[in-house]
Predict the 3D structure of the following.
Amino acid sequence: MALDRATIAALARHLDDCVREVRDTEKLTDRHPEMDWADAYAIQDAWRALATAQGARVVGFKAGLTSVAKIRQMGVDSPVFGFLLDRFAIPEGGEVAASSLIHPRIEPEIAFVLKRKLEGPGVHVGAVLAATEFVIPAIEVIDSRYRDFKFDLKSVVADNTSAARFALGGQPRAVAGLDLRTLGVVLSVNGEGRAFGAGAAVLGHPAAAVAALANHLAAREEALPEGSVVLSGGVTEALAVRAGDSVLLEVQSLGVVGFRLAA
Amino acid sequence: MSLTEDTIDRLGAELDAAWREARPVAPLTERYPEITLVEAYAVQKQLLARRRAEGARVVGKKIGVTSRAVMDMLKVGEPDFGVLLDNMACRDGETIEHRRLIAPRAEGEIAFVLKRALRGPGITAAMVLAATDFVMPCFEIVDSRITDWRIKIQDTVADNASSALFVLGDRAVRPDAVDLRTVGMVLEQNGEVVATGAGAAALGSPLNAVAWLANRLASFGEALEAGEVILSGSLAAMVPAKAGDSFRVSLGGIGSAAIRFV
């Protein structure tokens, strides 16, 4: 840890202010180049504590940086993780106000909902599948608090991996009988198919991202609670969206989920 | 017509030789900037006539330029097509000599096998579904007989839509057993995922691509015949293949196919 406790708390409050005031900021490492990985997660943790102290509830977690090519390109050896609050949830078929977001982008994902607590270390794909109640299509809205989405990984971890909103919906299914690797996804904006992919784009298998998350939490003496939602990572590149856009995700065998961005 | 019949015939012969000798030629569009799409298809026809005279048999068709990204790159508003010959078919798992080809690239797609002919115009996606016996996982190995893939749409059309080889996979699935729009495609190179996609990447659905071809062929007085294999278009960006590479394509609910280069 390179930053002191007071700085960490102040940076968490700063990011929380940016969300509330819908404004961007310079990336944290610009002002604190010495910030290390432990600091980055400490800022995220302080932010989580701040949110829960204000009455928010943690409903799950998310994985980011889950493409093998991107991980290699960034020179790291694992994805990054963030938390999901109850207020991030967009009702299926509902609306989210574009004015409540800075510069939103959407990613198609496969969400896992757990029927049992999942506790690392040593969690593998099989353990994740055994603990999964169902998988369901998810559109994640990411909204980096950093100017022009320009950041380094430590800054993005502190910024709760750009987490902002998510919509779950479609046909929940038990994982038995589903091949999550070859499950196709089609993400459309205003009726036009814009991004196409399959589950294997996420670490070779979306459950691998959930396993990595459980093992990451274990190193911090935490576990994924029963009933948690886990967003396993973007299957395609993120698409920028704006007020008036209507977005729809179709996932093979899992139906569709969508929402609108209201002005 | 801006090109004479003689020129069209000669270009067909040139591309046929380039194919046989795996030796690329300069872009047609650099030598004949006025070449039209209709003339490019006429060159393709000459090229195919030569192959058939050498004993090759037509086994199907392929559809190319089915993604928005490739259409934008080639500045066109519709796909193109080529003809599949029996000597282009490889066995699932076959080892291919890289030096037989020029600059091969691998594409994962869905192959249709027809039980009835589809004769346009007026063919709809529903009619394609009704005429399809089964769909199969498929690898298409494309290659360009044009130097460094320096292609405009007329170049690739003349060159039989850059087709080279195709591999049908291990399973045949009834077309109503899968949602062809959301079928996922995973392409692995040497065990690593290098591309993923979904059926909708081909004109919104592979069914739309096959319907497009049936209707486009009608303008040439041709049809898709019963028993033909139709490659419905790549579901992700092409991946260059080098000697030593092994590739596997998996399609959700359909199956997989593999090929190796030495």
Notes: The interface with chain B takes residues 68, 179, 181-186, 193, 196-201, 204, 235-236, 250-253 of chain A (CB under 8 Å).
